[in-house]
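In the current project phase, our protein records have gained a structure token line. A sample record follows, to show the layout:
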Amino acid sequence: MPEAVFRPPNVPADILTPQRDITHRHFTPGDEVVILKGLAGGQLWGEAMTIVTPSWHTPTDEDGWRLRNPQGGERTYITGHPRYLVHLSRRCPDCLIHLRAMEDYLLPKLTAVTGLFDCGWYALTELNQLVHVADARSGR
């Protein structure tokens, strides 16, 4: 992740990802994906990951994927829900539709912001499970 991250005070909620209807089978081990987290230079920005293996996503009690961050670090491996992921390694219609919807919804709301910022839609649990704020359960 780049070093300087700016968070504007009135970040719009990501209302699209929690409603995304994408199945576990949409992704396979080896796929390169991105988790959209904010904006950089007026475009959507996120963390690139590689799909490793199926893994239970505890925050949603649904099938998820173990992901590897190619940058390594303390959080080299995390688990995420399929609806959080967008293909980088291929141009699939489902991911392109989601990406375009995110752009259409968010970019007009954040025109005053320049530079890089994380919108704060995700957190990591103590089990290295990535969870969207709309999927977080009470007490987790």
About this structure: The first helix runs from residue 93 to 106. Residues 1-6 have pLDDT under 50 and may be disordered. Helices lie at 93-106. The CA atoms of residues 3 and 117 lie 10 Å apart.
